[in-house]
Structures are given as C-alpha cells and as structure tokens.
Automatic annotation (TrEMBL):
Residue stretches making up the Vitamin K epoxide reductase domain: 20-155
Species: Actinomadura geliboluensis
Location in the cell: Membrane
Family, as annotated: Belongs to the VKOR family.
Keywords: Disulfide bond, Membrane, Oxidoreductase, Quinone, Redox-active center, Transmembrane, Transmembrane helix
Record protein name field: Vitamin K epoxide reductase family protein
Main subcellular location: membrane
Membrane spanning stretches: 21-43, 75-97, 109-127, 133-153
PANTHER family: VITAMIN K EPOXIDE REDUCTASE DOMAIN-CONTAINING PROTEIN (PTHR34573:SF1), VKC DOMAIN-CONTAINING PROTEIN (PTHR34573)
Length: 163
C-alpha cells in the first residue's frame, strides 16, 4: 500500500499543472468565436444570399468566398475552418488540458501551427491574387493567430516541466 501511494504521489508531483484559468477562458472564447464565424461562413457557402458584408473596391466578401480559391481539394474552406475549431475545442476540454498524455499537447501545437499556415496562405490569396478582403474571413484569421499565440505562451510556460 505504501509503495502504491508513493508511486501515485510521484506521478502527481511529476505532472505539470494545467494551464492557468485566463488561458482556458481566452482559448474557449476565441474557439467559440471562430466556430461561430465558421458556421456562418459554411452556411453562406451553400446559400450566397445569407452573406452580409460590404462590397467596396477592396472589401468584398462575396468575391473572396466565391472565388476559385474558396475550396481546397474540393472541400469548402469554411468547412475546413469548422473542422479546425471543432477539433481544437476537443483539445481544450478540461480532460485534455489536465491530461499528461503528450500527444494532446502536441496536437494543440500542431493544430494551431497548421491553422496559422492556412491563414498565411489565405491572406496571401486575398491580398496578392484577388486584391479583395473578406472581413468575416479576417475574423477567423485573427482568432486563429490569437489561438496560436496562446498555445505558444502555454508551451513556453511549460518549459522545464515534465511531459
């Protein structure tokens, strides 16, 4: 019994503390915001009449969301964004944040890293190729970059802690 308690005590002492409350609140708010925008953009992908956005010379959501770049391998970009935020929400569950299983942590890092790479690609398409900006898309881009910074800050907080 004593050996079991000692082993359990060592395991608890070795596990890093969960991210601070501010991280969890900010990450959840951003994820829910990104999820909401992605749901809206997914709806507008299939029903263009539902899109509410100005159409000036530079700001033109319709031109961006209906361009040939609005799909990747036949999959609508908003659907990819929706999948990203649903998957990221799973990685932010209290269980996943308390888990000492390293693949969950690295899944968060890999997920937001791929997300930021997609943001760079999509912003390049908007600015360089289309010369148009979608404000709704920009909202998703900002949320993704902020999530990346949050996850990176959490990783720096964990430096030197046991995996």
């Amino acid at each position: 019994m004593t050996q079991e308690m000692t082993a359990k005590g060592r395991a608890e002492a070795a596990s890093p503390p969960p991210p601070p409350a501010w991280f969890q609140v900010a990450a959840w708010l951003l994820t829910l915001g990104g999820l909401g925008i992605s749901v809206y953009l997914t709806i507008t992908h299939y029903d263009e009449g539902a899109l509410v956005c100005s159409a000036s010379s530079t700001i033109d959501c319709h031109a961006v969301t209906t361009s040939e770049y609005s799909t990747l391998l036949g999959i609508p970009m908003p659907l990819l964004g929706l999948a990203f935020f649903v998957g990221f929400a799973a990685l932010l569950t209290p269980w996943a944040l308390r888990s000492t299983w390293a693949p969950l942590r690295w899944g968060r890092v890999a997920g937001v890293s791929v997300g930021v790479l997609m943001v760079v690609y999509l912003v390049t398409i908007e600015l360089v190729v289309l010369h148009k900006i979608c404000l709704w898309c920009t909202g998703v881009h900002v949320v993704t970059v902020l999530l990346f910074l949050l996850v990176l800050a959490d990783e720096f907080r964990r430096i030197g802690q046991v995996d």
